[in-house]
Amino acid sequence: MTVREALILGRKKLRKVGIPNPSLDAELILSHILAIDRFKLLVDDEIKLTQEQLNNYKDLLQQRCKFIPVAYITGRKEFYGLDFYIKPGVLIPRPETEFVVDEALKAIATNKNPLIADLCCGSGAISVALAFNNKRAKVYASDISDVACEVARINVNLFGLENRVFLLFGDLWSPFKERNIRGFDVVVSNPPYIPEHELNKLPNDVKNEPQVALNGGVDGLDFYRKIVTDVSEFLKPGGTIIFEIGWDQGAKVKALLKDTGFCNVNIVKDYAGFDRVVTGIYCK
């Protein structure tokens, strides 16, 4: 079977069960099997698969037909132009989260030695992207999931950032308090922000991701409240906080920041025009 024939087969199988992007997913899975990029895959579509490659491809297609996310199947996900290691049990980085990185890089652009805290760091995508793109930055990242910390450590090592990205296992600010790590110029977080009653309405793919990384409590705002409650201990006066938010949470998170000592609070929209990031300067 040729690449072209395999892609046709994959598209048909995935479309039949209602996978949203069958062509893209078939290409990603097959390029993973053949260890070539998608461009080469599409250009050289007369390449013949070995029987072993075809069997592996069919096995992975079956996983995708069960709505296992492609990133879990291939073990990788691109974020901010970097290839990250991903495995089940850790939240898959989204393109929208790149707006958090954009805002943080702006905030530290003129800082000679920026110190950043990343709460709910997950795979380490934000931390690694920040340190990779600003060679002066140091990042302390925390997560309560041991799987997330394991994956984040692999990604930190993958990009050779062991001396500038430091991982802390624990809940939000707790590991920072234990180690007396303070004085941050920027705090970033993509916390769980989906309201509990919305979890069962999520797409099948997302339901396969860790609930602990999604569940933001009754109104989806639990983690924002927890983070800002203690932020004065850790963020320098004049420092910046940057939150990823749900599309309908902008006004509420903006009000929360204003009520807890932040000024110049702004909402940043994503590619689709939805509220996606809230930023503020700590003025107390």
Topology summary:
Layout (H helix, E strand, L loop, with lengths): L2 H14 L5 H13 L3 H6 L7 H15 L4 H5 L1 E4 L2 E4 L12 H10 L7 E5 L5 H9 L4 E6 L2 H13 L6 E5 L4 H6 L4 E6 L14 H4 L14 H8 L5 E10 L5 H10 L2 E8 L5 E8 L2
Parallel strand pairs: 3-4, 3-6, 4-5, 6-7
Antiparallel strand pairs: 1-2, 7-9, 8-9
Keywords:
single chain, 284 residues, Helicase, Ruva Protein, domain 3, seven-stranded mixed β-sheet, 12 helices, 40% helix
Would you give an account of this structure?
There is one protein chain. By secondary structure, the chain is α/β, with parallel strands linked by helices. It is 40% helix and 20% strand. A seven-stranded mixed β-sheet has the order 5-4-3-6-7-9-8, with helices on both faces. Helix 8 links the parallel strand 4 and strand 5 (165-169). Helix 1 packs parallel to helix 4 (51-65). The model has no long low-confidence stretch (mean pLDDT 96).
